[in-house]
Every structure is written in C-alpha cells, then in structure tokens.
Design a protein that fits this description.
Shape: elongated
Distance between the termini: 63 Å
Radius of gyration: 24 Å
Number of strands: 0
Helix content: over 70%
Number of helices: 3
Largest sheet: none
Strand content: under 5%
C-alpha cells in the first residue's frame, strides 16, 4: 500500500513531464534538418548516459551495503580520534 503512495505521484510527474516536454522537443526539431539516424544516435547517447549513471549509483549502493566502505570510515574515525588527543609538550 505504501508503495502506491510513492509510485502514483512519481508516475504522474513523469507523465506530465513527457506530455509537456514532447511538443517542445518536436518544435525544437522542426527548425533543424536532422535525419532520423541523427535522432536515433542522440537518443542512444542519452540512454547510454543515463544507463552509466544508474550503473554507477548501483555500484555505490552495493559497495555501501556489502561493507566495502567500512574500512575507509574506520580509518577516518581513527584519524579524528588521533587529532582530538591533546599533544604532550
């Protein structure tokens, strides 16, 4: 039930963005002479860019969940603790 409270508004926002953006996209392409192959290459580049971003974010989340980042955080805590100690003169 709670998933629908998130999915429905986000779906509505996505639908509104596509519905409002598509005519603007079509109007912007009307002023330039871009062949179909150019549009397909541009769409493929956008999909690859989004895919790369999603893939990198998945790696970040998996790394955090599997504990690969714990060593780095532990070293940071040790450095902070060492800096907090008073120095002997």
């Amino acid at each position: 039930m709670k998933n629908w409270l998130i999915i429905v508004p986000l779906g509505a926002i996505l639908f509104a963005a596509v519905a409002l953006g598509w005519p603007l996209f079509q109007n912007s392409l009307a002023s330039i002479d871009l062949p179909l192959s150019g549009i397909l290459i541009m769409a493929a580049g956008a999909c690859l860019t989004i895919g790369l971003g999603v893939g990198l974010m998945v790696l970040v989340f998996l790394s955090a969940r599997r504990g690969h980042d714990d060593d780095v955080h532990q070293i940071g805590r040790e450095i902070d603790a060492a800096e907090a100690l008073p120095e002997d003169d």
